[in-house]
Design goal:
elongated; 10 helices; mainly alpha; about 260 residues; about 0% strand
Amino acid sequence: MTATGTYSPQPGAAPLARMIAAQAVLETKMLLRNGEQLLLTVIIPTLLLVLFSTVDVVDTGDGAAVDFLAPGVLALAVMSTAFTGQAIGTGFERRYGVLKRLAASPLPRWGLMTAKTLSVLVTEVLQVVLLTVIALMLGWDPRGGALAVIALLALGTAAFSGLGLLMAGTLKAEATLAAANLVFLLLLVGGGVVVPLDKFPEAAQDVLGLLPIAALSGGLRDVLQHGAGMPWADLGILSAWAVAGLAAAGRFFRWE
């Protein structure tokens, strides 16, 4: 105590930006220390990229297999972190009362969601760097503009984050775990990640092409493999999913 009624350091909440940054660092550390999360975010995408690029398992069309696979695996990395990992992690935090306690802290609820989003973005940057280095070592020859790639990754993250938070905030933790992993496997097979959509029946192609993973992988492939400009159609699909998912998550998310 420095004077009557005056304390040092002065009690009270830290500035909002500092609270969000601290929570984002904590969320990132927790994500990177989780074995299941590492399996989804790093090991599975890396194994798929290396395996399907070096072994002739799926007919990916003309050109090197890695040129087709690398954009799809980048899309898979975004989905694994923003959707599957976030849904499972947030679902169990909700079950164990972590979100309820955090909601009672000086950090506002939107600040907590912002910190989780920042954690997802940091993890995705690490994923993209790692997978890009591996793909380049395998002979990948990327083309196209960085702005289009960034726009696709950003909207893909928003779309999958909204869907992941919607699932985590409405289902029980065990149901979220099962559903998130099931969706991950289904979209891995049917989302144009490692199997071209033209391998599916024509009627199914129209439906599968509207999925966020198909729009993200297809848009990245158009830019990075074929050198296309801004893929407005794919960006439109991702924008629609992002708006719908985030709006639904904001409306129906339950903190307890």
